[in-house]
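lol so apparently i was supposed to do this last week
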Amino acid sequence: MSTTAPRLLQVRRSERVTPRMIRVTLGGKELAGFGGDGPDRRIKMFFPVPGQERPAVPRAASGGPVWPTGEPRPAIRTYTVRRFDADAGELDVDFVLHEGHGPAAAWARDARPGAWVGVSEPGGRYEPDPGADFHVVIGDETALPAVATVLEALPAGVPAVAFLEVADAGEEQKLPGSARIHWVHRGAREAGGPLAEAVRTAEFPAGAGQAWLSGESGCVRDLRKHLLDDRGLDRRKVYATGYWRAR
Ligand SMILES: Cc1cc2nc3c(=O)[nH]c(=O)nc-3n(C[C@H](O)[C@H](O)[C@H](O)COP(=O)(O)OP(=O)(O)OC[C@H]3O[C@@H](n4cnc5c(N)ncnc54)[C@H](O)[C@@H]3O)c2cc1C
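anyway here it is w/ flavin-adenine dinucleotide bound
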């Protein structure tokens, strides 16, 4: 967690991006000075527990974060800054409405204008290598918000391919940039399996590439190994993060 206290923000509006993805637009006085957007910027989100109006958030202190006493701790999950507009004072976060019954997805589904949530300072930032011969971007629907920001940041004129697993054709989104997008439909199969198969059997552009991949943790681990061992990508050029774990 960052050393500054999380900001308490309020929902301005929400809209369905696809049947299973909801975009929640946040705003509020405490959004002033937020650390901006860019490729793959992550935030910790603090969700109120049922029956609570505002989540408890820690106060920044020199010895580390200090939690208010006597208040239940929030559920904390990691999300991506899909869009930050300093002028409009708005922050968009896209939530997958998965079927795993988690507090974050449930909060996003039910969030009405005025609902409170805590948001940390954004961390991370992907640095596309301007010298890479090609770029590979791999992810599932939880990664789509980050994928959109990564694709936007890739250098023009360099071959780029993306492999993206979603439930079905209705979950495909319009994405920025000029990468060749391969949508992979999961259907009734286990998360990550169809994506791993698509990547393993794909032809990559020639040369030394750079890869960004995120999604279900087991799949990410498997594909990272594939990129290093079978495709010979340089370990420093493979940026992999497990986003969630199938149980
Ligand atoms: C750096 C980073 C960035 C992320 N950005 C985003 C983002 O922008 N948008 C987004 O939607 N997610 C994002 N995620 C993933 C998100 O944090 C997880 O999906 C998280 O588990 C959701 O919390 P929850 O409270 O809804 O479910 P949890 O309480 O964590 O999990 C409850 C159950 O749901 C299952 N589950 C969790 N996620 C999924 C899923 N996607 N599909 C199927 N089952 C699932 C779990 O296996 C568990 O059984 C990101 C994760 C990381 C690490």
